[in-house]
Specification:
Oligomer: single chain
Mean pLDDT: 79
Distance between the termini: 50 Å
Strand content: 5-15%
């Protein structure tokens, strides 16, 4: 069994090391001189001298917002691509798409219904501003109507089901 010694170095300055990788990338190792101390039943982080707040959370914009449903986005991408194949005449019908993708014809037809979503709803899915209760499963099972105003009402009703 490989055993390594774990040392707590109480002093020192924060620094980072860059280790080149074989594929051309760089692995960055960061050292931050923090200590964990027991204060009653809790453990707290104690920073080096002169640092008032050793652990702070900086608000930043994440690459993918928490509300973004990647499965819904993947399904929307598929449905728009399949609709493009049908519109451009690359495939004659959904049976050909199902055969090419290895899916059932029913799955392809259910997914293609999402191509008629209102542009603002698709944009909201892309930007992650749909209610959390709205998912790919709900869209596929609820069969969104063709009328965009009714689709917006349906989204609003999904949002109230929390």
């Amino acid at each position: 069994m490989n055993q390594t010694s774990k040392k707590l170095i109480p002093t020192g300055q924060p620094h980072e090391r860059r280790h080149p990788l074989q594929d051309g990338g760089v692995k960055i190792t960061t050292f931050v001189p923090l200590q964990f101390r027991k204060r009653g039943l809790k453990k707290v982080v104690v920073g080096p001298e002169g640092v008032a707040n050793p652990v702070s959370v900086n608000a930043s914009v994440p690459a993918i917002t928490p509300n973004q449903d990647t499965f819904l986005l993947k399904t929307l991408g598929r449905c728009y691509y399949w609709q493009h194949l049908l519109d451009s005449g690359v495939v004659a019908n959904t049976v050909e798409i199902a055969a090419q993708e290895g899916l059932s014809k029913i799955t392809v037809n259910e997914t293609l219904r999402l191509a008629s979503l209102a542009p603002d709803i698709a944009d909201a899915a892309l930007h992650g501003t749909l209610p959390r209760t709205v998912s790919r499963y709900l869209f596929l099972r609820a069969a969104p109507p063709l009328d965009w105003d009714m689709q917006r009402e349906m989204i609003a009703s999904f949002g109230r089901q929390v």
